[in-house]
Amino acid sequence: MVNIEAEYNCVDSWNLWLPEGRQTLPQPWSEKGEASIASDGSLHFAQFRVLALDPLEQTYTREARLEKWSNGELRASEQYVLQGNMYFKNQMLLLLGMAGFQTLSLHGGYMDQPASVDDRELIFVATK
Questions:
Q1: Is the distance from CB of 121 to CB of 109 less than 8 angstroms?
Q2: Does 119 lie in the same domain as 74?
Q3: What confidence tens digit (pLDDT) does each residue in 7-55 have?
Q4: Do 18 and 70 belong together in one domain?
């Protein structure tokens, strides 16, 4: 099983691929937002931003900042640069086939339903 995000279904993401959107990069850090609470009671925050996009190569560079807080104090902080590629449905089917996989099904999200043009995430189920 492998998944891809269909960025064309998110206006904010897709607009960044346009020339005007790329001029706004790198994005500022997002607000910390809601914390998730770990089993030990510590609070975890995750922030993400887009640094760069290359539509010709279909590549992106994002950055992640993770924080762990306990008793009102910052206990750990990590920051990573994430690089990736954007693929469309037919490109993924071709890549899977070239790698020797037989695609069994294509789902929209993690639901047991066929993929549609409106799905934000495509799930490929394949065997080799």
A1: yes
A2: no
A3: 898 898 999 999 999 999 999 998 888 899 999 999 999 999 999 999 9
A4: yes
- 53 belongs to a structural domain: yes
- Token pair in block for residue 101: 């996989």
What pLDDT is recorded for position 33?
Answer: 81
Structure tokens at 31: 């607000």
Cβ(61)–Cβ(85) under 8 Å? Answer: no
Q: Residue range 60-81: average pLDDT?
A: 96
Q: How many domains does the chain have?
A: 2
Q: Do 21 and 76 belong to one domain?
A: yes
Encode pLDDT of 73-127 as tens digits. Answer: 999 999 999 999 999 999 999 999 999 999 889 999 888 899 999 999 999 999 9
Structural tokens at position 14: 């897709």
Distance of CA 96 to the CA centre of its chain: 20
Number of H helices, E strands in the chain: 3, 7
- What residue spans of 7-72 are helical by DSSP H? 11-16, 19-22
> Within a domain: residue 3?
no
Residues 117 and 69 in one domain: no
Helix (H, G, I), strand (E, B) or coil at 48: strand
